[in-house]
Predict the 3D structure of the following.
Amino acid sequence: MIKFFRHIRQNLLMENKTSKYFKYAIGEIALVVVGILIALQINNWNELRKQKKQIHTNILSIAKDISRDTLEQNKTIKSLQKELKSGKYFIPIMESDTHFVSDSLNFILSFNTFTTVYNYPNQTNTWSLLNSSGSLAEFPDSKLLGMLQDYYDNYYSLTMNFSESTNLSRLELRKIKYELFSDSDHKKFFPTKTPIPPSKKAYQAIFNDTRILPLCRYISGGAIYFTPKFIQVNKKANAIIDYIHKNYKPIAS
């Protein structure tokens, strides 16, 4: 093709057709410019297609991240609901004058429930990577973007508040538990899959320690406060997962 155009130029010069040569040269330049513009347009189209594919992949990855979040949320909700049940049984006995225990094993296990400590490590997930890279400015789905911003702001704030407000009390109660019980008593109900009631001295130690009831009240109150909040954030998580599965199908390989 280059030889073809060169041959035309040489013929025009040899025939001394200067005006035609300049017209041809201008046309050749225009042709080259058009070719460059077409190449740039194709390149831009390919880059845009790659960007759209990457964003689609990121959205599907976010759905997987949030699905993992829901596993932790469900675990927390189940544990908090167990604490609520334990509080309704354990605290009234502690507050009573007689300290009558109708189910000794349930009493000990209820007490033990309040010593659960929750940890939510900061995970480097797809959302945090998009935030740090500034890619959210090009996010194509404003509705989904709003749902994600609301969810992550809520979930991060909730887990931090929950951990910071109750874990110290739980750790304190756990420390007291190890102070009060001998190894033989402790091993009867924790950790074991077949717990049995410890000695009467263990129950008396709980009743006599004035630190236990206030801590259990505080932890139980936290369970009452945080359980509906985790249920709410879990609903938001599942709504996002449903939205993504409905609107973003897996990319065929």
The CA atoms of residues 240 and 250 lie 16 Å apart.
